[in-house]
Design brief:
The protein has one domain: Roll (2,3-Dihydroxybiphenyl 1,2-Dioxygenase, domain 1), CATH 3.10.180.10. Helix content is about 20%, strand content about 45%. It has an 8-stranded mixed β-sheet with strand order 2-3-4-1-5-8-7-6, sandwiched between helices. The longest helix is centred in the first third of the chain and has 12 residues.
């Protein structure tokens, strides 16, 4: 059963704060959001709270009342060919500067760097070996 909706992105910002180079957030990209929520509720004991976004609903996963990750549905033509998977995010001190260095080192920027109000500035990269990773400069709490 869903809990009350959080105050916009503030709850994500609290959970995603981290120091440079540390993993700070994880989210599941899935085509079966209800099945994924059921699985993690039944197997791990997570609860979920909806967060309305411009593009739909982002689900905050909670353990013991604390935000531990997020889930969103892969839908629309921009998601064709995107495999269901977990995406991990590293906290970085300056996402724009670090992405410039990453691209020089062989990474590919998968979409333009973007801001999530109340959360931070985010880049989605493919490292030279092909693994995807998110980098985030978290908004200061």
């Amino acid at each position: 059963m869903a809990q009350a909706a959080p105050k916009r992105s503030e709850d994500v910002a609290k959970a995603s704060s981290g120091f440079h180079g540390s993993f700070c957030w994880n989210e599941l990209m899935t085509r079966d959001i209800e099945g994924a929520k059921r699985f993690y509720r039944d197997a791990i004991g997570w609860t979920f709270a909806p967060m309305k976004m411009d593009w739909g609903t982002y689900w905050l996963a909670k353990a013991g009342g604390k935000n531990v990750g997020g889930l969103f549905e892969l839908k629309g033509p921009e998601c064709d060919g995107v495999p269901e998977s977990w995406m991990s995010y590293l906290a970085v001190d300056d996402v724009d500067m670090r992405v410039a260095k990453a691209v020089k080192a062989g990474a590919k920027l998968m979409k333009p760097i973007f801001d999530v109000p109340g959360v931070g500035r985010i880049a989605i990269l493919m490292q030279p070996g092909g693994a995807g990773v998110g980098w985030m400069t978290p908004k200061p709490n």
